[in-house]
Amino acid sequence: MTLAEVLNKLNRGTEAEVLCAELISQVKEHRENGSALPKDSISQLNTLAAVFVQQGKWRDAIETYDAVVQDRKNMFGDEHPVTMWAMQQAGENEQAKSLFEVLLPRQKKILGEEHPDIKESEEMLASLKTLTT
Questions:
Q1: Fewer CB near the last or first residue (10 Å), C or N of the chain?
Q2: What span, in angstroms and rounded, lies between the C-alpha atoms of 98 and 93?
Q3: pLDDT single digits (tens) 5-18
Q4: Is residue 86 within 8 Å of 65, Cβ to Cβ?
Q5: What is the SS3 assignment for 35?
Q6: 100 vs 80: CA distance, rounded Å
Q7: pLDDT (tens digit, 9 = 90+) per residue, 18-64?
Q8: Distance CA 105, CA 83 (A)
């Protein structure tokens, strides 16, 4: 996937997509038959979705991001930052914003104001607020 990421950043999305052929096949099978995605493929789906975005294949990108969101929800729960970041990538901005608004005070209470995750969550929430207004 690293080469696909590099090719995509060089605006060579068609070549990047060829390298993702096995992953594309797995996602298609997952959508059509509900078969589980291999654990190691989930982290690669963001790259695949970015390849689709670069090529203007919006439906494929959304469906790919959706697979990431569902996996993150199953693995970490609805309110985990990883899930919310995946939701934001999938375009579920309003829902992600609402969840971050609940999460941030909890994080501050548990982790303290100076924890690096707080800054990251604050930046994500600010970004989501601009996207949803």
A1: C
A2: 9
A3: 788 778 887 887 88
A4: yes
A5: coil
A6: 9
A7: 888 888 888 888 878 888 777 777 678 877 877 777 777 777 877 78
A8: 17
